[in-house]
Structure formats: structure tokens, C-alpha cells
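ping. complex inputs:
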Amino acid sequence: MSVIADRINEMKEILKKAGVDFYIVPTADFHNSEYVNEYFKVREFLSGFTGSNGTLVISQEETGLWTDGRYFVQAAKELTGSGIVLYRMAEEGVPTIEEYLDSHVKNGQTIGFDGRVIDAAFGRKLEKMLNDRNVTFEYETDLADALWTDRPGMPASDIWVVPEAQCGKTVARKLAEVREAMSKEQASHMLLAKLDDIMWLYNIRANDVDCNPVALSYTFISEKDAVIFVQNKALTEEAKAHFEKYKVQVKDYTQIVQFLETCELKGKVMCAYSEINYLLYKLLEKRGELLDRENPTSILKAIKNPVELENIRKYYLLDSVVLTKFLFWMKKNAGKQPMDEYSVAMKLDRMRSEIEGFLDLSFPTISAFKENAAMMHYSATKEDKKDIDTDGFYLVDSGGQYVGGTTDVTRTIALGNVTDEMKKHFSKVASGMLRLADTKFLYGCTGKNVDIMAREPLWECYIDYKCGTGHGIGYILNVHEGPQNIRWRFNPGVKEAVLEEGMIVSDEPGVYIEGSHGIRTENILEIVKETKNGDGQFMGFRHLTYVPIDLDAIDTQYMEPSDVRKLNDYHAEVYRRLEPYFEGEEKEMLKAATRAV
Amino acid sequence: MSVIADRINEMKEILKKAGVDFYIVPTADFHNSEYVNEYFKVREFLSGFTGSNGTLVISQEETGLWTDGRYFVQAAKELTGSGIVLYRMAEEGVPTIEEYLDSHVKNGQTIGFDGRVIDAAFGRKLEKMLNDRNVTFEYETDLADALWTDRPGMPASDIWVVPEAQCGKTVARKLAEVREAMSKEQASHMLLAKLDDIMWLYNIRANDVDCNPVALSYTFISEKDAVIFVQNKALTEEAKAHFEKYKVQVKDYTQIVQFLETCELKGKVMCAYSEINYLLYKLLEKRGELLDRENPTSILKAIKNPVELENIRKYYLLDSVVLTKFLFWMKKNAGKQPMDEYSVAMKLDRMRSEIEGFLDLSFPTISAFKENAAMMHYSATKEDKKDIDTDGFYLVDSGGQYVGGTTDVTRTIALGNVTDEMKKHFSKVASGMLRLADTKFLYGCTGKNVDIMAREPLWECYIDYKCGTGHGIGYILNVHEGPQNIRWRFNPGVKEAVLEEGMIVSDEPGVYIEGSHGIRTENILEIVKETKNGDGQFMGFRHLTYVPIDLDAIDTQYMEPSDVRKLNDYHAEVYRRLEPYFEGEEKEMLKAATRAV
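pong. complex structure:
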């Protein structure tokens, strides 16, 4: 680990020369993406900590790393010998990064960061907090770059175009909808930096971030013009022709800075401060009036159109077939032949890749046996994995990118015998998932209103799962998508998104007992309109996922009769939909797995 | 009705002379109270409309009355012949008062109102909306006063002191808590105008508003001093001695204006703009920096202390005994002897008044038979009421003010035969009430998270009740109290109150079928702490109300087995608690009414 200690010391020298007192290194690309490509893993390079979330603050006195609960154990291990102090986020008495800076930064000092990887909202917060301390912000240089001699190149995968028949809305129509939203806000221009929103808007995809089919890009839209900034080498002939067709000007990715410095601006520029980076924000701030607004693309993208929905339903069924077959194979072979968490994940990934229209995984498959399943973000590797035999729960959370949608599904199955308590937990989780899916609600409800439907069977037993119940999912895009979610905790100042017809959301309650077992049952639901009457527009959900819920782990004594009814109804529907894809012994297994209990 | 038309014409003359183009008359006292005394019913005097909510806007061109859905029928009737235009609030295409003024007020015009009956938040909204139109606000005169020659006097009932043993916290301690909250906000002073908050703070009560045991008053608190403004004639010797004991300076109610103009101010003044009137706001605005903050008394008052809770539990039981006896009498005698909605309400009020410690009703008893019960705020009068016989639902919503608490309870009972559909509705309402009461939730939840527990049995049938599920309740104070509530709809900008241990809330789902029947089952619940474990602090509810739910209207085929279990458990507890107060035939009835089904 002394290589890390050395690196930190070299950084301190660089900071000293640059006159920077505190240097902040988050885990982010230039677009505040949830997942980042290797090129952007500066924090990992400097600290040696490999988790997906963490921020480093380096000063001459101390180097601190902030990360969240998922990574406390891993970070402590990986930071050993580095001299870096671990700050466990959200633990009692642990300062946030803002609080830390507030109590450490002295009058006249300098804070440094690469302005492209810090979002404008955070930068503004720091400005405001320190504004009476005469602090300088050095944000125009990536000071770690010089140190990282074998840094991977910036990703620049080929941009491809989603066929018109597949996306249901032309670029022209999407641009018109965005311009309508701009005009409502009285904005003449809009800067959009969120990668999946840009992909959606222009009906393009690429592969610049693992599992997320996006291209590094920006777009600047005005009442008449639309300019997209992409890397020259990513620009295929197909993409070029597509942009020409829709009169979208193309400029190189790196030209965004010069463009924002010199382009003609009349009127207000709309952008989301949490999604554009601080460097671009400072450029625009100098040039005129800014409107901090949610991207209109966010809600437009979340409400799937009829073509997208039709494709989504189709690919969710094909995906369900494969997962069901995989789980049957697991049930049959576990304990009888050698297998481990990693090898079976590879098998599932292979099976999925054989579906016609498969493009990629939508995230790395989570494959976990026994106590490993209690870790919500566990990841088995070729080197570090557990053998799978019997007498425990096996959990698999996986999904694919297809030419007609993005899937996400979790099932937990009993291999061999499981205890009565495990069956109780499993039955409660199944009840919660099914209850939420069967909930009717009035138009206007948000995820805050309905979350308890999935959670109450567990809360009644004084058990909680420390995460949301559901998230939105992209269409051939990121597996996590907003603005809707199903969560119970309020975030002050965050506007809650109403659950709209055509949105899709996950429904994934779970039980996680440290050192023992983990259960998650996740279906994806489509939001639909139901009856409209004098009391209002009623809404409901429909399942998109059709994979049996393991009856070997169900004990109906822990369920309400209505939950059992919901389970049987769901299984009848699973059988009806999957049956055409099954034959022989597998069909018998399907029949048994979906029998009424 | 021509007397009203004449009055409006006279008002127009007055406005002309005063140079006022638009005159606004809300339904409010000087404290933005929910219910107001006769003295403050200027809007009713001018318009002839007797509902509890409505605002009049008078101009030379038009006089409009805005009221809500509860009163559309009644207002249309009462406004006939007056020439006043009815604006049905929240109906599609109907402008709000703000929108109306925005589209009608011209450059340089004058808007008038009595600045004491318009709250500062609304006044500021108008100022902001019209600030580019050079509009003058005339707010220092009550222009209708001259016209109302037989206006009742301002109420000035005797102030009495809640004994220390009854309130659980001394004035000194409450003032210390308020000052702590002020110091957190860095406020040196606080103006409090909310009547029930002032009563709570000083452990005093009076009778200036029907059913609301409050005295017209203001209080101004600084780091060292506390001044209360009450009417001289309301100041009893007892109250005087009490204020002296706690070093609270007493000034006359009318002196508040002069005081705020001249008192020594150093530092910021904290107040809630929605609860202080515009006149006082303008005075303070001239003098220095204001902080618009929730009154700290609001949350302090809502969390009942152990002494209050003990008394509340006791008086809810006594109140439950009386209501149960009344309902038994109804069941036995309806259809056999003459009775009507008004006469039986009088009987219940009389029975309640015989409870030792009874002070007043907490609101006028709602007593409604058959289709009248479908009107949520129906009120039978001596002159206008319905005879009660058999074959329908009878709904009674009532409560009392006692020396140890304020009660509120609703029951619906079947008299004679009711239809299968009515039983279905009744059983669903009972299920909803019982489910919410049995809900376990994590600390941090608000009413938004749990509302669906009461509502889902109805939403599943595509039925809604167009009101919240629950509200807070005062202690020997107003029957409606914040800040907590149980509702599902989000109000943008309103901070949701977390459900805290010691709060009490109503749980009152219902079904209202216009022209047919109405059902409401309302228990009051206490919020309690349950288990605390690694997943957090779990919370729950306890019933305070113990009155049978009419088994003649229950059909268990419409309930989940767990709902039936909850009903039986509740009834067993009702029997256990009420039994000591029942004898002979009534005891037999109690046994039958609480039997397991």
C-alpha cells in the first residue's frame, strides 16, 4: 500500500506548487454520471479504494476519504497503509465533506478541484458557505493528471442510431417537446449534459460507460438550433447522416468550452445545476442569466411511448424465460456438480447473450450465496467468490440491454433446506412485492405514498430494508433512471415526481440479515390508468417480469390469504406467458413452480 | 334577498368615497382562526352566505364570492337575488381570487381590505403579484363596520387558568422552550398571534370562539420579557395573579399596534407570515428585520406531555362510554319513537354534558341520517332536519371539551336494514380505520407515508373520500390542530411534520355516496414508540377511542381475515375497558356489540 502513500505525497507536492490548500477528488465524469469509465477513476487511482462511490479531500495536514455504508468494510481494508483517514458517511458524529471544509478552511485559502467533475450545485454550495472567507477556487486544471502516467484513454465508442421503428418518436418531435418546455420557462437556450438524456433526445446510443449505452456528449439547444458535442472519432457515418437529417449541428466534444464562451446568447439559458459541471457553469454565469431547472428530458424520457412499451413487454418476457431456465438449472444441479457464484453468473450472462437482440448486460450480474446475499452490492469475482452447494438462499440480480429495452430482475431461490425464519422472511418479501404491484391509487400519488405497501409486511415484524423500494429504468439506457422512485424518506427541497401512465418502476423489497442470508424479489412494473370516475383517475401497475417466485421458500402461514391469492394469480399468469417457451422436463418444472398453493 | 343587494350597493358607495377599486372581505378574525366569533362575520353580513368558508371581492363592476365544494349548493341558494357571482373554488376554469385580481386590477388602482383580517402571507403575495402596476393598498380601515349598525360586540369571555397539575408543564418551562427555539433561529423577539398557541403557552383558556376555548390575544416574547395583550374586561383576578407569578406583562388587546410601533427592538423578529395579520406585518416591516418561521409552539403543543396524555386517555374513555350508551339508545328506539337528527343530537350533547369535567362541545355535533350523511359538513338545525326512523345509516360526529382534554369521534350505525352495498362500504371503511391504527412505521414517516393504509381498501374498489384521513387535536383546545396530519396529497412548499411520539391524530376514512348514504368511522390514535433495533426506531399507534363498530353493518366477506382479527381484537379491548361502566341490559348490549365475528 506504500505506493498509495507515495502517490498522496506526490499530490501534496503538486498542491503546494499550485498553491492549493484543499484538493477535492470525487468519483464522477464530466456529466455527473452514476457509473464512470476507467478514464475518470482518478479517485481510485489516488486512493486505491475501488468502490463505486467515494470522495477524496487532500490537504497538507490530512487526506480523507468519504464513502457510504455499502463500502465501510471494503474501504477500511483497501485504505490500510495509505495513511488516508476513512470518513464513514451518515454515521453519527462524522462530518460531511461540506462540514469538514467549513471547519478546516481558513481565510484566504485556496480550494482546488477539476471543475469538470464537480457539479455546479455542489460548487455553488461551497461558494456560498465560504463566501465570507475570501477563498479562491482553482477549478481549471486536473492536477492529478500529470501523476497518472499510464492513465487509460478517454472512451470513444462508435455512436449508433436507434431505428425509428424502435424508438417511437423522431428527433424532430422530441426537440419540439423540449422547446415547448423551454418556452414555458421563458428560456431561449438550454444546456444539457446528462448523457442518457442526450441519447434519448437524439435517438442515439454508444458504449462509453460499462453497461450504460451512452456517448460522452453535450448538447446546446436554442429556439432554432441544436448543437451536439461528441468526440470526432466516435462519429460514425450513420450518426453523421442522422444528425444531418435532423439538422443537428455536430461539434467536437472538447469544443463545448469555446462554444459557450463565444456563441450568440439572447435570453435566458436553462440548465440543471446538479447535472452540469462547475466549469461550464462558471462560463455561462459570466455570460448572462441562468435558470436552474429540471431537464425537461427527464420526465419525457421516463414516460415510455407506446412503441417503447410494446418492445419493453416483449423483451421482458424473453428475459424472464432465460432467467427462469437458469433458475431451474440451479435448482436441479446445485449440490450435485461444482459451481460457484462467479461461474453461475457467467452461465447466466451467456444464456442472456443468446437472446436475439441482446446488446450488453445492463449492469454486472450480482450472484450471491448464503451470507454474501446479505450485502446489497456484493460482487463475486473470478478470484474472490463462494462455492455454491445446498442449504441456503441464492440471490441473483441481473439484466440486459436489448435492441428493445433494458431489463432488471432479482430472484432468490432456496437450494436444499432453509430454516423456518428464512421462509418467513421470504414469504413476507413476496407479499410486499405483490401488494405494491396490486395497489390502486389516485392520480397525483408519488412513490412516497405507495412505498409502505411493499414495506409494511416487514415493518410489522420490525424489519426494514435500508434502500428504496423502486427506481425507474431506461429504454436501451441506464438501469437506474429518474425522476420517479418508490421511497419513503423525504428529501427536503426535492420535488417528488407523480407516478404517470407509461412510467416503469422496480418493486424490490428485501431482507438482509448480516452474516446469515439475504433475500430480494424484484419485478419491474408498468404504470397504467385504471377507472376514471367522480372520485378521480385511478391508477395501477402491471407486471413486466414473469419469473416464478420460489415456492420451496414460501410458507403461507406467514402470508394473508389475499397475498396467497395474489401469488397464485401471478403464477398462473407466469405459466400462461412462459409456457410456449418451455418443453419436456423444463415444462414440468414450470408447471410445478407456478402451481397454486 | 334584496336587503343583501342593497347592502352591496351601499358598500359600493362607501368604496367610491374611499377611492377603493376592489375590496376584499375574507372569513377571518384578526388571528386567521379556523372558526370565528359572530363579531367577525362581516362576509356573512354583507353577502347573506352563512357557510364557514368564503371570501367576497367587491368592485363597482361585480361582486364575487369564492367558496369551496362543501358549500356550492348552499351558497347558490343563499346568494339568490343578491346579484353576487358565485366562484366555485377548485372547479376547472374558475379563477382563484389571486388570478381574478391579477386579470382585473389595472395600473394605479387601489385594493382595500381590513388589514387585521388578511394574513401577511396573502398580503405579500398580492404585493408581489401587482408590484409592477403601481397599486395602492388601503388596509387600515374596516370599511364595512359603518354599515353594520347592529354588529355584535367583540367577544371578551373570562380568562381562566389551567391548573398546573392538569397541564404538565409550567409557563416558565414553556417560555424557556420557546426561547430556545428563538435562539436557534437567531431571533431576539417573537410575535405570536395564533390563539390556541398562546393559550397553550400561558396555560390559559377562555371562550371567545364557539367550541374553541381561546381568548383574543397576542403575545410578544423577547429574550427576557413576555408581554400578553388581552382585553381588559377578560382579565380575571385569577389570570392576573397567574401572569404576575410568571412575570408576564399584561397589556390591553388594542395596544398591540402602538406597542409594535414603539417597543425597543434589537435583533430579528420571528413570526409566521401565515398567522400574523397584514396590519401588524406592515408595522414590523418598517421597524426591522423579520424572520418568517413556523411558530415553535406549534410542534411543542402537538407533542402531548405525559400528564396531558394521562388525562386524554381518561377523558376519551369517559367520552366513549357516553357515545356507546347513546348509540345503544338509538339502536333500541329508532323507528319506535319519534326522533329527528336535531333532537337526538341534543340528547347526545346533554348526555355528554353530564360527564364530570365537561366544559363545552368541541364542535357542533354532526347528526345525519341517510342521504344527509353523504354531506361531509352537514348540520341539522331545529328548523331544518330529517326525521329518523329505520332502514338507513345514521352518522354522528361529535366531541367534548373537558378539563382533561378535547375529544372527537365519529360512528355510523345501521338502523333497521341496510343494503349489501352499504355493508360492503361500511366493512371497507372499518378495515381502513383498523389497518391504519395497526400500522408500524419507521421514525421519520409523515402522514403522507401512511395515509394509504386507511385508503387502500376503498381505492381497491375505486372509491375515495375527498378529504384527509386525519388531523391533530388540541388539549382542551381546538379540535383541529397541526402541524401533523394524515393526507396523501402533496402541497408544494409545505414542510411535512414527522409523526412524533406523544402526538395524537384522527383516523377517519369514509364513504360518501351523494343522495344515498354516508359512512365515517373515526378513532383518535396516540402515536407511540415501539421496538428500536439496528433498522431504526419503529413507531406505532394506540387507540384512544373505545366505541363499538356496528356489527350489524359488517359483512366479513368484504374484509381480509386479518381485518376481521383486528376488529375482534379491538372489540375485545372495547369490552374490557367499557364493561365497568355498564350494567344490566346495556351490559348485555355491550357484550353483543363487541362479540367476535
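The mean pLDDT of chain A is 95.
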